[in-house]
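In response to reviewer comment 3 from the previous cycle, which asked for concrete evidence that the modeling workflow produces usable outputs, we include below a single protein chain processed end to end. The sequence was submitted unchanged, and the resulting structure tokens are shown without manual editing.
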Amino acid sequence: MSQAVKSINATTPQLDLRRPAILNYLPALLPILGAILMVLARRQMGAGNFIDDGSLIVIALLCFITAAAMHLTDLYAPMQGLQKAGLWIASLGFFFNLSSWLVRWVNMGDREGWRRMTDHDGVYHTWWFFSYVPFANLYDLSLAFAFGAALTMLLIEHRPNTRFVGALSLPLICLVLILAIFIGSEINHLQPVLDSYWRPIHVGVASLSYGIALVSFAIAVMFLIKDGVKAEAMGIFTSLFTLINLVVFSKAFSFSTLSFSLNPGVPGAGEGGATVFVRHLRAPLPGVGPFVAISALLLLIVVACFTVYVLKQNDAMRRWGHWALRGSIVAQIVGLGVLFYQIKSIRGLSVPFASVAPQQLLELGKQAVGRMQAGTMSVEQLVGVANQVLQDNNGKMVFDVKSNPVELAALITSLVLSLVIVLFSLQPERLRAGLPSLEKLDSLIYKTVGAAFAGIAILLVTGAIWANESWGKYWGWDPKETGALVAWLAYAAYLHTRIAHGWSGRRSAYFALLGFLLVIFTYLGVSYLLPGMHSYAE
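The workflow returned the following structure tokens.
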């Protein structure tokens, strides 16, 4: 009898009460479906009756900030439902982020009446619908960078034991969107030579690859925390990053005069009443420079104290370093408050002619007449043009966050990095306990770096093909393509040392960090500091 019962049980179909695996990916899939419905609604209702893409990206930023706070709280003090709430709010942020980008796509097409679909030979071509994909400037790329990172994070977080990834990925995504908001959502005209079907392929792959690289960086940092790297050691590098940004890369701050200067703009002088910024002219904002100087000096103390602590385990130096770091955070917050107050309040700005350096006048003259015409004019003529521009617009200039978006975003990034170091130094053992095993983290780094490596390889190949179609050569050693190659080689070194030499753990994590830092330098540093075909500085 018992054997018969066993036989019946063995042949009876078992009811699988587990939910299908696809349901675990709903936080990543539902926003894509929702964004498609959103853009269809935009097409049906028209631009005048629909929320604009700039407002959508602000909502996305608020969602990501909320989700980041929930993820970080869950690491330190797990609460029932907090992890899942953070996941779904991040999913909502992804929805608004992607919707903003898709609505912008429709706006760009409506702006020209979708004429490119028939212009080139008079015949309707569906493919040219993709010529309006919003990849014309750094704002468009930043939106795609952010939703690429958000999608990667949500796909990884489909399991409850991987939902720690957003704790650091989400703050980084927020910084990318803050940069986009500072840049502004104005639609730029694309040069005809760049209007190719390779553009959405090349730039789309770039943005998604950058997003994957961002997540790999976040996981690598968490690996180092889990592996016992002290927050103070990380604080040395974040403080040095801020100091190098202020001293080397930023043109805004001057130690000699303790002043912080931005490019003024002339409101209403551009197309559609837009503000035109005088790129090669700087005007100081009162009261900002001293706070930046105090912050920089305190960060120097942080570097010195934390270095002594890491090398000699001197607890007194550790305490002094943390006090200096907290003081620097206060100075940064006050300085940013004064900065944004001055930007909003100063109107009718006058720039004394005597304060403008001769080189600034020369560059201003080139900006006024255009690079092509400037090549036919003498230095005296260009300076005369610059003086005329200043005379015509003096007393009309204003400050705006869009004038120097990268420099302002870098200041906020420095503040966020300092806050993260303070946060990670609080109860580090509890933080490490909230992270999964080193093996799990190492495996996630390997997978994300492998995906980023493949994406950047495709980026380089498609970029070379596009360059050959546009400029007649596959490779020109342009700073940005060279930077992308160096970043790809860094990820290649990670994979080579891991596969061929068995490297893993902390040594491999450092390669992942280096790769993303090179990606960011390619994404922003090369674009704004070095001249080239990818430069956004002009």
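The beta strands are 253-254, 259-262, 265-266, 276-277, 283-284. We consider this sufficient to address the reviewer's concern, and the full set will be provided in the supplementary archive.
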